[in-house]
Amino acid sequence: MAEDASLDAEFLGQEGTNVTGFSRMEAAYGSGDGDEQAVAAVASAHNAEVGTIFEQIYRPWNGTLNTRWVRNWSILRHHIYGMFSKGHRPWGWPVRISLLVLLLGSMNGLFLSFLGNAIGMEEITRLFAPSRENLYAHVLGFFPRNVFCFPIAAALLVGGMISEDRKNGTSAIYFSRPVNRTDYTVMKFISVAVLLSILIIGTLAIYYIGDLVLSGEGWAYVLDTFPLFFAAGIAGFFLVFTYSSIGLALSSVSRGKFFPAIALLGIILGTKFIAFLISQLYDDSIVYLLSPYDCIAHLGQKMMGISSTYDHPYTWSLVAIIIMNSISLYVLTARVSSMEVTRE
Amino acid sequence: MSQENVVETINLVKSYGKHIALDSINLKIKEGATGLLGPNGAGKSTLFKSILGLISITSGDGIVLNHNIKEEGPIIRSKIGYMPEYDCLNPELEAIHQVAYSGELMGMNPTVAMQRAHEVLEYVGLKDQRYRILDTYSTGMKQSAKLACGLIHDPELLIADEPTNGLDTTHRDFMLNTLSQIVNQGGRSLIMASHLMNDVERVCERIVMLHKGKLIAQGKIEDLKAIEREVEVHAWGGASKLEECLVDGGLKVRRTGRVLRVVHVDDSTYDQIISAASKSKCQIRRMQDHEASLEDLFIRIMETLGYGIKSSDELLDNPNIKHVDAPLELKNRGLL
User: Fold this and answer.
1) Interhelix angle for A68-81 vs B95-104, to 10°?
2) Is the pLDDT at A198 greater than 90, yes or no?
3) Inter-chain touch B153–A61, beta carbons under 8 Å
4) Residues in contact with A128: Cβ distance below 8 Å, sequence separation at least 6, in sequence order
5) Domain coverage including residue A85
6) Which residue in the set A168, A175, A344 is minimally distant from B54, CB to CB?
7) What is the pLDDT of residues B167-197, one digit of tens each?
8) Which of B69, B101, B161 to mutate to test the interface with A (most CBs of A within 10 A)?
9) Dist CA B63 CA B7 (whole Å)
10) Half-sphere exposure (Cβ direction) of A107: Cα atoms closer than 13 Å
11) Strand locations in chain B, DSSP E?
12) A88 in contact with B at a CB cutoff of 8 Å?
């Protein structure tokens, strides 16, 4: 028995024991028949020893909980980091790949400008340089960006943002904690807006700065074009805000990913299509006030000094945007208020 | 609020329009484990939401862990761990990340939350499964993961809403043992809502009963059960005569065939039964104390109140309800 204890001590690496190598051999090749020490080690709740597989002990935690803004940051972090790494909100691979493709597609201006510089064709470089029209088109051009890129990206992002919390009951995880509904809504909104901003305003900045670096223009050029870039950025902000608010309102009234995504595309592209048909029939642009995209485009044209393609005053478009966002935010807050903790 | 009360409400009323969900609730939940009982629609969920400070109460007042439910909801929620009855887990997340995130939402540092998530998942028996996606979990494992989410910040008070819902015997035993251990070893308080009386009896030493938004009973299970104490008599040859004699002697008797249950008034009850048996020439084959289970007590109260009653007031007038330790204000009104 004493010999067995010595072998165990050796195997466990205890100090002061002779190294015979026997127990290592035993561990490696199983040279014994396993009955040398015919005593089973049984798991016990109070006197666990070597051989215990699971012992349930309640361990207290005496740490300090951080403030409201740390909690809010965790919501933001959960959604944004989830796009890039594991362990946060699980964005599906189709969503991630689609967004990557849309991101690269949104930088076609920079790629073509780079191509022009690389092969020395000044016509191409000038054609894709950050001019008034190009900067406008980067954010508010209908085809292809506001047909294929931005609405689809917004639809992919807002799809399950709130609806899945309702569907999975995860709203209980939020609201049974010291997270209030305002913080929850604002952080969800900012999460979508940040991701959408990377696509819209981020690529605008990359395009503008990248082209400056590629073309080697001086300060005079920067001073000339920066106000246009800034105005395009503001227009991009309106676009991000409006798409996010409408999308999240739709997400808050739903229980799945599909409806909010399709409904957002339907609202953005459907209103545009109907307004286009009516304007062609009756030669009147007033119906464009129903289209979120056209209202922002109208405002963008005014901000960037581009001749308007609409007949009605731009202030009407501004009012229409405010009304659309107000309704969306009202629906969003009302629906988030109705989210349950005890059952969903 | 006295120091040992974790929850105390004073005339707490919550109404949704004309519907009164909680009607003048005077609750005193002491430290330790307390079971919350009541049929569907009794007001359990509304009470939880009130305790968590999530809904504005119509009138009255409430103190939870020395904080006012009207003004200090976020502080209360930071001290409470809530385990919901229904699914509340993101099925696409791994358990470890779900639990860590629930800690971060409490305000824990991400690194600390992750470290603690490992600890609590081990504690609830999910150590080896913590990196599995929650969608692949069984019902029992999901319940354990929900418990881990509630325990991550080591709350002073744990609210478990139907913690054994849908669990098989093994998982149910484990869950109940874990909850008991949280109270006995961890020194935390527990409010456990359940429809399963045996579960409540196994974990809790006190109960609170709600019915139609009213507080019907609260107190120690043993005390409440003692109120329903009966003497069980197995009679032979003349059970109906014995019953008559006992009733004539002023005792309350329930009879099923040859088995009679006589309400225990005091120690003289035994003598009265023997005298009645002698008088009615009935043979007593066996006589023993019958201690009601919590389920018996619950059924008895519900039978007395009736499941389809319109208001509790009319039924609280019923003298049978005097058996139960009911709110002080009802006693003062002479109803109990």
Assistant:
1) 150
2) yes
3) yes
4) A109, A110, A112, A113, A116, A134, A211
5) 68-337
6) A175
7) 999 999 999 999 999 999 999 999 999 888 8
8) B101
9) 6
10) 20
11) 5-16, 19-30, 33-37, 59-64, 67-68, 80-83, 157-161, 189-193, 206-211, 214-220, 230-236, 253-256, 259-263, 283-290
12) yes
Q: How far is CA A65 from the centre of its chain?
A: 26
Neighbouring-strand partners of residue A116: none
Whether B104 sits inside 8 A of A180 (CB atoms) is no
Residue B157 in tokens: 């008070």
Residue A221 maps to a domain: yes
- Expressed as residue numbers, the domain containing B174 is 5-224
Distance, CA of A56 to chain centre: 39
A77 and A23 part of one domain: no
- Measure the CA–CA gap between B183 and A221, rounded to whole angstroms: 72
Whether residues B86 and B202 share a domain: the answer is: yes
A218 touches chain B (CB under 8 A): no
Query: In the structure encoding, which two tokens stand for residue B114, read together?
Result: 């992750």
Domain end marker among B224, B258, B280: B224
Touching B: A residues 122-151, CB under 8 Å: none
ipTM of the assembly? 0.82
Q: Is B246 contained in some domain?
A: yes
By Cβ distance, the residue of A58, A88, A173 closest to B105 is A173
CB B193 within 8 A of CB B36: yes
The stretches of chain A forming alpha helices (DSSP H) are 2-11, 22-29, 68-81, 93-106, 108-119, 122-127, 132-140, 150-158, 163-168, 171-175, 181-197, 203-215, 219-252, 258-265, 271-282, 292-304, 314-337
Of B275, B290, B305, at which residue does a domain stop? B290
Give pLDDT, residue A43: 53
Predicted confidence at residue B309, as pLDDT, reads 39
Nearest CA-CA distance, residue A63 and chain B, Å: 8
Cβ <8 Å between B101 and A179:
no
Q: Give the pTM.
A: 0.82
A173 touches chain B (CB under 8 A): yes
CA distance A90 to A94: 12
Residue A342 lies in a domain: no
Output the domain CATH number for residue B179.
3.40.50.300
The CATH number for B278's domain is 3.30.70
**Which residue is listed with tokens 């581009």?**
A306
